[in-house]
Amino acid sequence: MHRRITAPGALAAASLLLAIPASAASFSPGAPGIGDPYYPYYGNGGYDVSHYDLRLQYQPKTDELQGTATILARTTQDLSSFDLDFLLDVSEVRVNGAKAAFSTSGQHELVITPKTPLPKGTPITVVVRYSGVPSTKSAYGFNAWHRTPDGAVAADEPEAAWWWFPSNDHPSDKATYDVSVAVPDGTQAISNGTLQSTGSKLGWTRYTWRQNKPQATYLATLAIGKFDITTSTSDGGVPVVNAYSKDLGDNDGAARASVERTGEIVDWLSGYFGPYPFSTAGGYVPNTTTGYALETQTRVYYSPKQFANGANTSVVVHELAHQWYGDDVSLKGWKDIWINEGFARYAQWLWSEHEGEGTTQELADYVYTSHPADDAFWTVKPGDPGPDDQFDIAVYDRGALAIQALRNEIGDDAFFRILKGWPQEHAYGNASVADFQRYAEQVSGKPLASLFDTWLFQPSKPAAPAARAASLAKADRAVAQPKSWKKIEATNDIHDTHDTHDTHAR
């Protein structure tokens, strides 16, 4: 709180100034948003997180969650106070061991005022004790905590953390994680990374998971319920942990027939994208009513609805491709979503070719000719679609079309060097569409500004490349639908999270 002090006379004013340390004037609150124009109040300013340690206890019967979050961070400015993104009820906050004042603000801000201001560059340890019933909390009219018959799931984009841990909720602030969860005996808790330990005491079993590589907050996941857990190791040496709710009913077989191919698909994708970037892989299929999949890091979330029409390896390919494009290299801002979704969709096209069900060029031609010039599809700009169209189908299909156009422009040799080199160039970091363009130009030795502008940023249908224009013009009326199209399409219109999002899978 700022109080205005009026001191009589110049001498009193001078003595007042002498009493205040010269540096005090520079301390100010951290911004309540990290500066992303799509989501102005997501993330926070003033600090950078390096690690989250979450010690939780959850009761499935009542949906009660208790937790202590220990957050390791470093200040990036002189801070008088700072925010965390969070919705549950907080009972105590400590900063560097001392009790701190706290209050709530806006839709999802926890405002923390440490006992003493924090100079720029100070390492800080923030401890937040909290509890609550996540399913009763909402922000902006939605809830991203999904109850199941035997527990709950946290998996959503662009936000899910607020319902289960306090955080700096923006992909640009990645951190490592330890997640330790106690649940009643007979129930399991699943999270990202590697299972470090389990132990049972007085009717509760504690599961401790570790994510040892930097991870964006929306890619942190928590699943609690009764699961059948399978473990294996891929030919390439990647440990795989998958989990299936025990009450998936008719979708159980198709889910397993898809997700159990994770190790094979990780190895296959490694041939295009380079070594798998994490210590473990896998996925889980809880008994939820949601319709989408999400690339939660190392442990992909799949809805049972993905498998309602049988096995679907295409969606597994899409989400595993994100482990390189989206998880290892994360977007700098939400406008850079094309780097996530365009490349995950293109991986599905590569898988189609691998399966003999349509080449990438056949799929590109089909997408191109399926949408006439006056189709609204072409008004969405994949390189900066805007928050309302962030998950529009054009970001996926036009996004993949742009990648095929790049491939045709620079040739296969440079193209596949880019596909493999990009995840290593920005390993465990963040990058933008502009960064990708620069990298593509560097590797290919070609100027690509015009191509990127045409395919990613113009709200109109690009002209067909000259070499293909004649054949496409003839085929405009009837390009054959590739065999894989229905499988790829099945990963589209199944995104039903909440009103602020479009209806497409991620």
Automatic annotation (TrEMBL):
* Pfam family membership, one: Peptidase_M1_N
Q: Which SUPFAM superfamilies match?
A: Leukotriene A4 hydrolase N-terminal domain, Metalloproteases ('zincins'), catalytic domain
Task: Name all Aminopeptidase N-like N-terminal domain ranges.
Answer: 50-219
- According to its UniProt record, the EC number is 3.4.11.2
InterPro entries in the record: Aminopeptidase_N-like_N (IPR045357), Aminopeptidase_N-like_N_sf (IPR042097), Peptidase_M1 (IPR001930), Peptidase_M1_aminopeptidases (IPR050344), Peptidase_M1_dom (IPR014782), Peptidase_M4/M1_CTD_sf (IPR027268)
Task: Provide the cofactor list for this protein.
Answer: Zn(2+)
The keyword Amino-acid biosynthesis appears for this protein: no
Gene3D superfamilies hit by this protein? Neutral Protease Domain 2 (1.10.390.10), tricorn interacting facor f3 domain (2.60.40.1730)
> Which leading EC class covers this enzyme?
hydrolase
| Recorded family membership | Belongs to the peptidase M1 family.
The answer, when asked if Cytoplasm is one of the entry's keywords, is no
Q: What is this protein called?
A: Aminopeptidase N
Domain Peptidase M1 membrane alanine aminopeptidase residue range list: 310-455
Annotated signal peptide: 1-24
Going by the UniProt record, its keywords in alphabetical order are:
Hydrolase, Metal-binding, Metalloprotease, Protease, Signal, Zinc
Which reaction is the catalytic activity of this chain? Release of an N-terminal amino acid, Xaa-|-Yaa- from a peptide, amide or arylamide. Xaa is preferably Ala, but may be most amino acids including Pro (slow action). When a terminal hydrophobic residue is followed by a prolyl residue, the two may be released as an intact Xaa-Pro dipeptide
